[in-house]
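Thread: glutathione complex, take 2
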Amino acid sequence: MSHGKQFTLYSHKGGPNGWKVAFVLEELGLTYESVYLEFSKNEQKAPEFLKLCPNGRIPALVDHKNGDFVVWESNAIIQYIVDKYDTEHKISVAPGTDEYYTQLQWLYFQASGQGPYFGQAGWFMFYHQEKLPSAIERYRAEIKRVLGVLESVLSKQEYLVANRVTIADLSFVPWNIAAATRLLENFDFEKEFPATAKWHKALFERPAVKKAWAEREKVLAADQ
Ligand SMILES: N[C@@H](CCC(=O)N[C@@H](CS)C(=O)NCC(=O)O)C(=O)O
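Output below.
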């Protein structure tokens, strides 16, 4: 490690999953160096990266303060970060409490219910070699279903856990940006899911989230 920062974050400039880790590191003021892998060169499947992350996908995090400990899977990464370094529970709840399992519940739901389905919508819209309208329709319907689940809860409470922002909320931000901006057609977020849109906007306006997202825009623009 030559950069002198606490963490190395293996990420991708465009892909949503690395950015939620950046949000959490920024929220906690932890130092990190991002290494952006090039999917066009298949760097995420290169032997050096597979040694860190056998799944061959970003993100992966190396904690240089903890003997170069490596963790991958974005929600496992953010759970690791807060369990170890958010001891004041600024954006997390205390391990072992009931709320901790509610937080875990939303993190599992994000990783199994939001990420893969929103990702498949993107795949069938932008990358699949054939145009398969039924597949696009299926995953778009699933996006709306997931937003409906969030709406049913957020219309009764401001945040998912403990009445304040936690990693559970932050984990949904990158894919909800994709839903709001490019995965759905003729979509009026505020009208269809008002409480979820309000929650999403509040999260997106947090300085840590804005800072990480501005970095994303900067590194993407540099490639143009
Ligand atoms: N469940 C994983 C998903 C990771 C994932 O799908 N990452 C994408 C980028 S956002 C990736 O690395 N894609 C490259 C590939 O599949 O080869 C997580 O949350 O970390």
